[in-house]
Amino acid sequence: MQVSETSQLAQLASMTTLSIDSGDLQVIREYAETGYITDATTNPLFVSQAGLSGDPVYAEMVDQAVQYAVQHAESKSEIVTLAIDRLAVNLGKAIADIVPGYISTEVDPRLSFQREASVARGKRIIAMYEELGVPKERVLIKLAATWEGILAASDLEAEGIQCNLTLIFSVVQAIACAQYGAHLISPFPGRILDWHKIKQGRTEGVAPEQDEGVVACKEMYNYFKCHGHDTICMPASWRPSRGVGYELDEILALAGTDRMTIPAPLLEKLALSQEPVMRLLDPARIQNVPLLAEGKMTEQEFRYRLNMDGCGTDKLAEGIRAFIAETEKLEAAITAKVKDMQLS
């Protein structure tokens, strides 16, 4: 794929590190070859799609994952979950061979409220990556930004395992992640906008600078820079602030943030456009954001503040449910595969 040096994609990549939000190896390869995409993020939906696609490349990954799990699981009850993790790692390894930077792999979302189990699963994922020759420095373990997920990330970070806290819909979540040492967060401006549109009964679009998702992401970015947090802000999940035809609104409104992960259809729009991109977030021009509180948030403070944020509470729960649904689809397919293998 040839992309002009004057395209919006090239301009954006000069100020923000770009990741592709996809599990499609061919699509990832096409964009990585442009030189403007360095990282890739996956989630349970992408792993499920790969596992259920029937494509020979992914079918081989599934077969290998099941064989690995049958051979290495410590008990029969662990075979399916180990196979799911191995499939995610197999996909991640294939992606790591294409992009030079990070790959993100998510812990089973059903563990979103289990700190110790999330830590154990994160370590297992890293160990499997290392078996395949991918160093832990290139892997981000994705965890939902629940209280338990944030503490699990803190535990993993203490052992040198970098984490990507996802499903961030509230500034409170973002601040807690930074306070507890998360390497990176993934706020979802598009889904934040969705919630506010429904809540207010809005049918008309808004200017990007008034888009609640954009406002939230800017506050997170500025808070981190104001108060000395090294946590990276990597927005994901995009919507057109002004409505159909303005699909790049949120992306362009956050130009200059640390990182972004963007799906292929929006990367294509950026690649085809020659319009100028203005840098709107810059560590040299930080807006002051008041300190939330001295010291780290306690569990009680976090739960209370998140509970008082309707968008954060609703969207976090919705996101976890959606990822669990995809994981359960894949689990059913893997279970059938395991039974077939045991019968043959």
Short structural summary:
The chain is an alpha/beta fold and about 350 residues long. The protein contains 14 helices and 8 strands.
Commentary on this structure:
With 344 residues, the chain is α/β, with parallel strands linked by helices. The chain has 14 helices and 8 strands. The chain has helices at 8-13, 25-32, 44-52, 56-72, 79-96, 115-131, 147-158, 171-179, 189-200, 212-226, 249-253, 264-272, 299-307, 310-343; strands spanning 17-21, 39-41, 103-106, 139-144, 163-168, 184-187, 232-233, 259-262. The chain has an 8-stranded parallel beta sheet. α7 links the parallel β4 and β5. The longest helix has 34 residues, at 310-343.
How much is the average pLDDT? 96
How far apart are the termini? 44 Å
Looking at how many chains there are and whether they match, the oligomeric state comes to single chain
CATH class: Alpha Beta
Total number of helices: 14
Measured by DSSP, the beta-strand proportion falls in 5-15%
**Sheet with the most strands: spatial strand order:** 7-6-5-4-3-2-1-8
Largest sheet: 8 strands, parallel
Name the poorly predicted regions: none
H/E order of the elements?
A: HEHEHHHEHEHEHEHHEHEHHH
Share of helical residues: 40-55%
CATH superfamily membership: Aldolase class I
